[in-house]
Amino acid sequence: MKKTIFKAFGLLALGTALVGCGNNGNSGDEGSTDADGKTTISFTWWGSEVRHEKYIESIKEFEKENPDIKVEYEYGSWDDYWKKLATKSASGELPDVIQMDLQYIAQYGTKNQLADMSEFIGNEIKTDDIKDSILATGELDGSIYGVPASVNTMATLYNPALVEQGGVDIDFADYSFDEFVSSAAAVATATGDYGWNDNNDNSTIMQYFLRTKGEDLYQYDADGKPEVGFTKENWVEFMSAIADLTKDEAMPTAEVTSNAKSFDEYPFSQGKAAYMMTWSNQYLTYKASAAEGVEMSLALPFDSSDGAMAYRPGFFYSIANKSESKEAAAKFVDFLVNSEEANKIIGTERGIPANDAVKEILYDDMTADEQESSDFLDDIADIVGDPSPVPPIGFAEINTYFKELYAEITYGTMTPEETYDAFTKKCEEIFAENYE
Q1: Do the Cβ atoms of 118 and 245 come closer than 8 Å?
Q2: Per residue in 88-127, pLDDT tens?
Q3: Sequence-ordered list of residues with C-beta below 8 angstroms from that of 35, at least 6 positions apart, any chain
């Protein structure tokens, strides 16, 4: 496989810009058998219209290859999806196969809603071609609650022209956080544009920064209970940099980013910001959203050489613990993860496949940008560290609170020290509420 370093692909569905909902008009019981003796399983997902069409076509192929299994399905937008899933969970009616997100997998897994898929790994579900470090992202306390479908990693997008105007020489193969911040400030001074455009998922940037310090947003103690995983010193260092940059108008306030209704409304897409830190699978999306004449490239993030980088799943396939047809469900998951036919239908709509063999099969049919994304993920294999722990129960609430505090920093209404005290207090409250 050809390799080209520091480039990546955009995934349509990471929880944003999702449309449509519906089902196939069937509502049979989970694990039911129809008049023809077929086992019926259910499958639910979120995504764009493109994803809906590809999954439905894949389901038809699966049923053709497995005439004894019938797959009923339902899909929707990100927000509606999680509302419906919560309702189904409360009533004990989760679908057999569930598209699951990283920030919710602990919530559903540890509350006995998801099956431990360990018994199927290596049997009904083959994972030989998924790196151990990627497969481990769905594991908690020795149980595997999801098999990853796609993979990405933290990266830096940059506008070469604006970076050059900033006059700070950056070696994108090896540069520090301080050099990154200095370059962003210099760009703003030289051009009047932003140096660094943050993104709406800004807690992931903080988490990456903490990983460069050997810490994380959260960790688990010997009893499996979550706790804050970072020091005040490192939190304050990061937030102070954000405060200084926004005060000097080298970064936009949180209002600018949160009010953007689409990728093309970001200053970075408009050629009005030099840097954007985000997941590597967003690269193609930003390129497609860029204003005419705006060029962008992709590079390693700062301080990437000591295991700070890690592979992150786009999402997982999970199986409901109450499913009466777990083996059939596992067979369907294996089909989605490993089948050449299914993956030729789905392509890279979910992002670059977590399955290396599938990625190899699809490579020649990928666009140039998709191939660059695939190469990027391969090229960092020697420097990635262990994945962060699975987010604890209540992390969605913690993440929302982080965004609120981050916004206060950009408005200058709270100090970094104040946000540290507020955030750690909130974490401790949520951990205590969800873990005995």
Answers
A1: no
A2: 999 999 999 999 999 999 999 988 999 999 999 999 999 9
A3: none
